[in-house]
Amino acid sequence: MPIVIVVGGPAGTGKTTQGELLAKKFNCPFIEGDALHPKANIDKMSRGEPLTDEDRWGWLKQLSQIASEKAEEDKSKIAVVSCSMLKKVYRDYIKQNSSIKDMSFRFVFLYTTFEELLKRVGNRKGHFMKSDMVKSQYDIMEIPEQGELIKNGGEAVSVDTTNKSPDVIEKEIFSDLKL
Could you state, in order of their start, the residue ranges of all structural domains in the chain? Predict the structure, then answer.
């Protein structure tokens, strides 16, 4: 069965870095979720305005469908996509909107402290997500709870990225995914 691995969390947690590392490890496609945002969403975030749930639904649906199709087409039957997926309802929506009937999803939720997020986002250049937007993401973040976790029969892993190198985080993710 094809699998989409969604790597998420607030801005600055390392979604793109970890997504690219996982795609390399599985020799599969990587989709940068930020590249799928419609211009209206990017313009809104660039002005420092947080997205609403209504702003996100179309983006999440497109993301789910594109990632599902890539997983179905690829010889590895895996695709990795980055996406903030800050709330459980977003993770559920991604699963429900796959364009492929029997698609399996795994969610990798990355998180750290608010102070660390501010530092990391403040050091980025050329990205539409600015430091003043971090609070809105941090405030709505729902780290997967026990029932969502793979170790308890769910589909998610959560990884605290505080003071860890990308290599250490990658190893923790890969071990917890159990693929």
Answer: 3-177
8: phi then psi, degrees, rounded to nearest 5: -140, -175
Strands across the sheet containing 104-111: 30-31, 78-82, 3-8, 104-111, 156-160
CATH superfamily label, 3-177: P-loop containing nucleotide triphosphate hydrolases (3.40.50.300)
Read off the pTM. 0.92
| pLDDT tens series, the chain, 179 aa | 999 999 999 988 889 999 999 999 999 999 999 899 999 999 988 888 888 999 999 999 999 999 999 999 999 999 999 998 999 999 999 999 999 989 999 999 999 998 888 887 776 555 455 456 788 888 899 999 999 999 889 999 999 999 999 999 999 999 999 88
